[in-house]
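REVIEWER CHECKLIST
Item 1: Sequence provided? yes
Item 2: Single chain? yes
Item 3: Sequence as submitted:
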Amino acid sequence: MKYPADQGMTMLELMVAVMLLAVFMAGFVGITEFTSALTQGINQNDSPDNAFKASDLILARSTTGERLNELARDLSILPEPALPKDCLKSNTSWNIHASSTSSKIWYLKNEQLTKFLTLANTRGFIDRVCLYNKYRETSSLPGLYVLQAEPKQAGPLIQPLRVLFCRPQKFCMQ
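Item 4: Structure as written out by the authors:
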């Protein structure tokens, strides 16, 4: 059977072509929006005054990561009953007595984790810092703990930061 040369596409071919075009365009728009969000940053609470640029987010995450590691070192030398039971929020503080002579107080100021009440002049993204125990320590086995900095609203650009640490230090490998 011969077909004329100008017959064109069948209805099935047209539907498949339209579906492929729709899938491609949806992927293209999604990737474009995500890339735009990465380069422009994010707006917190939809106001331009609260906008975070991508470079500010990277700096805030880096600073928070370093301070979480330092807080984990402070918490790893405490006796177990002295570990904080509640989350650190902007209206609370964690007073960590590392020894009988030294004491460190941790704050959340300007949505940023800090040891000094007057240090946090740049804005961060942390809503609270919580300590979770994955495996309770016993007299002969160490415990595994997770220190987590949680943002107000997680998204593709702002994720919780976590630090795992082991305590007591005499049972943990360095």
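Item 5: Key structural point noted by reviewer: The beta strands are 42-43, 51-52, 93-96, 104-109, 112-114, 126-135, 143-151, 161-167.
Item 6: Recommendation: ____
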